[in-house]
Specification:
The complex is a heterodimer. Chain A is mainly alpha-helical. In chain A, about 70% of the residues lie in helices and about 0% in strands. Chain A folds into three domains: about 5-35; about 65-105, no CATH class; about 110-310, MetI-like (MetI-like fold). The chains are: A mainly alpha, B alpha+beta.
């Protein structure tokens, strides 16, 4: 079809590409800003107009991972000479690294918050997608009394804005001792994602011809074996797409994490901005934390991108 | 190999009755064809035998054992469907191995290998064994599908329109192959189709289903020559049997209103004379010749190579006649026709039931 392209068409094509490029740049700008700020010296982070050319340094990351306190007086030359390269960066910023009685460097809160985020998002995603897949399979393959009502009921959990349920949830969690626990957040995110997962997976399950498992049943397999051997591989695309969405939701969740956790089980989203308030806001540290926080989702999405693309267009290309 | 019996089977889906009081018997080693239109209950019958559905009432016996409570896996039947019958993502070999790797069968590995090889040889798909199923043609897919059935030596083969999705040439070829295969295996086949040609050419016995009722069972010849009612008469045969309303008077068929009269030489039961009837005559029993008693006009001519199908217009009725291709007829030509008076079937006009079958 492309054999005959008029010059107008080619011009339009170029314009379209230019348009897409501009939009892409606009969307990428904040990410660039975060990424560049994460490598800036502190004094360049808030300049107006923004500094574009600078010598990148890793001091924001050193500060991100260490516990620091303000220096009352500058370090002595001996102290400064004895310090490793990364500690000097902290000294240069007018701070010192906090050490315990034995001289061990104290970590900042960031690594443990990051781990909390990983644990909570991963486990809640596995639970939500796992249960959602099974539920969707049930709804898709068996006659369920009041199927429509039940599905609507499942979805209704998403109709209330989180703010409405935040206070009652908080009180419930306090009563059950789930405040500031991993399990508490996992339950919360799983419940939150489950309805979404059920609905999305139901669509994918409906697309898989039931003839496949019936053939397996006749071939001498149980319903369970047929599900794992025949249905699940077919649903892989849908599961991947659902998992990405659930993971992103759980990973980025802010409001509930802020309310329900404060230390032990706190995830990264409420922690990163809390750094703004300790001492003078150091935007480079916040940017470094944010940049690292973006990575897992980016990697996860990147790994599943093939499935994701097929998953999103699943229904459209089959019929 | 097995003998199958369905006793008073009724199957209801919600408010829709798919099957009503169905009685069916399939002999060991028989090729039984269930023939019917879409929605007649053919597939439901098959799924009931397979154990994928449970009957609302009635019993199913395989070799004399009531299998009502058995699951699909335990019944040891093989199922071949019209489509979606192969596992995607698997190679042909993996598809053929799949039923043998089931835990309830526990076939040793070298036997699996041997059985797969034998099935592949039988169906001439050896060169496809390592190919993924999404890279097969329709005919190859159906071969593999049948292969997956024969590796198992099941008690019954259930086939749900396995040839319907194929193109005409392939369908014909596979029809012969399938019948041949069944004879060689000596297996019991329950074959479902809406294609009466398949039913007639393959079946040892044919059962005609209409709206969940089994209207007639018999050999293809019995069904063709002696249809139980006007539904079977018009469903079986291509072109179908001509059906014309009229009545009997003095041994002659009188087609109302006074269109034509022709002799009738079949058996006349008492009471046949005084009621409205439907006369049935196969197109090949209608003859067009110069000296024939009834005048008609040629409405249409279809040339089928060895023969021509001529549609005749007689008053308000149309009649189809199969004539040799050498017969010279043209559209709107005036011709004369007669029928073979011995081959005329009588049906009650209201119930549609053949007088030969009714009490």
């Amino acid at each position: 079809m492309a054999a005959v392209t008029t010059s107008t068409e080619r011009t339009l094509n170029k314009l379209a590409i230019a348009g897409v490029l501009i939009v892409t740049l606009i969307f990428l700008a904040p990410i660039y800003w975060i990424a560049s700020t994460a490598f800036k010296p502190r004094n360049l982070s808030t300049t107006i107009p923004p500094t574009v050319v600078f010598t990148p340094e890793v001091s924001p990351f050193v500060k991100l991972f260490t516990k620091r306190s303000q220096l009352r007086s500058p370090p002595t030359p001996e102290e400064y000479a004895a310090a490793p390269w990364w500690e000097r960066m902290v000294f240069d910023g007018g701070e010192k690294v906090v050490r315990d009685g034995k001289g061990n460097v104290q970590w900042s809160g960031y690594p443990s918050r990051f781990m909390n985020s990983l644990i909570v998002a991963t486990i809640s995603t596995i639970l939500a997608v796992g249960m959602g897949t099974l539920t969707a399979y049930g709804f898709s393959r068996f006659k369920v009394k009041g199927e429509g009502d039940l599905l609507f009921f499942i979805l209704s959990t998403r109709m209330l804005p989180p703010v409405v349920v935040a206070i009652p949830m908080f009180l419930m969690y306090r009563t059950f001792g789930l405040n500031d626990t991993h399990i508490g957040l996992i339950i919360l995110y799983t419940a939150f994602n489950l309805s979404f997962s059920v609905w999305l997976m139901k669509g994918f399950m409906d697309e898989i011809p039931k003839e496949y498992e019936e053939a397996a049943l006749v071939d001498g397999y149980t319903r369970m074996q047929a599900f794992f051997k025949v249905v699940l591989p077919e649903a892989a695309t849908g599961i991947a797409a659902t998992a990405v969405f659930c993971f992103i939701t759980a990973w980025n969740e802010y409001a509930f994490a802020l309310i329900m956790t404060n230390r032990r089980a706190q995830t990264a989203p409420p922690f990163i901005p809390s750094q703004v308030g300790s001492g003078l806001p150091d935007w480079t540290v916040i940017a470094a934390g944010t940049l690292l926080f973006l990575l897992p989702v980016a990697i996860f999405t990147f790994l599943l991108r093939n499935h994701l693309l097929r998953g999103v267009t699943f229904g459209a290309i089959r019929k | 190999m097995a003998h199958i019996q369905l006793k008073n089977i009724t199957k209801v889906f919600g408010r829709h009755t798919a099957l009503k009081n169905l009685n069916l018997e399939i002999e060991d080693g028989q090729f039984f064809v269930l023939l019917g239109e879409t929605g007649a209950g053919k597939t439901t019958t098959l799924r009931l035998v397979a154990g994928l559905e449970k009957p609302t009432s009635g019993q199913i016996f395989i070799d004399g054992v009531d299998v009502g409570d058995w699951g699909a896996a335990e019944r040891d039947v093989a199922l071949v469907l019209q489509q979606y019958s192969l596992y995607p993502r698997y190679t042909v070999r993996e598809n053929l191995e799949f039923p043998l790797k089931s835990k309830i069968r526990r076939v040793p590995d070298d036997e699996i290998k041997e059985r797969v090889a034998r099935a592949a040889r039988t169906l001439r798909i050896e060169h496809l064994l390592e190919r993924k199923t999404d890279r097969l043609s329709g005919g190859e897919m159906q071969r593999v599908s049948i292969g997956r059935a024969i590796v198992r030596k099941p008690r019954v083969f259930l086939m749900d329109e396995p040839l319907s999705a194929l193109d005409a040439k392939l369908r014909e070829a596979l029809r012969t192959e399938l019948k041949d295969l069944q004879r060689r295996l000596g297996a019991t086949f329950l074959f479902v189709t809406h294609d009466q040609i398949e039913a007639m050419s393959m079946g040892d016995r044919v059962g005609v289903l209409n709206h969940g009722h089994l209207v007639q069972t018999g050999t293809p010849k019995e069904i063709y020559d002696n249809p139980r009612d006007t539904f079977v008469a018009s469903f079986v045969g291509s072109p179908p049997m001509n059906l014309i309303d009229g009545s009997l008077a003095g041994g002659r068929a009188v087609i109302a209103p006074k269109t034509f009269e022709l002799p009738y030489e079949g058996a006349v039961k008492s009471g046949a004379n005084d009621r409205p009837l439907t006369f049935g005559i196969r197109p090949e029993d209608v003859v067009i010749e110069a000296g024939a008693p009834v005048p008609a006009t040629v409405h249409d001519v279809e040339n089928h190579g060895v023969e021509k199908i001529v549609t005749l217009r007689v008053g308000e009725n149309t009649l189809r006649a199969t004539v040799p291709a050498s017969t010279q007829v043209e559209v709107e030509q005036d011709v004369r026709f007669a029928w073979n008076p011995k081959k005329v079937a009588l049906f009650d006009k209201h119930s549609g039931i053949s007088l030969r079958h009714a009490g």
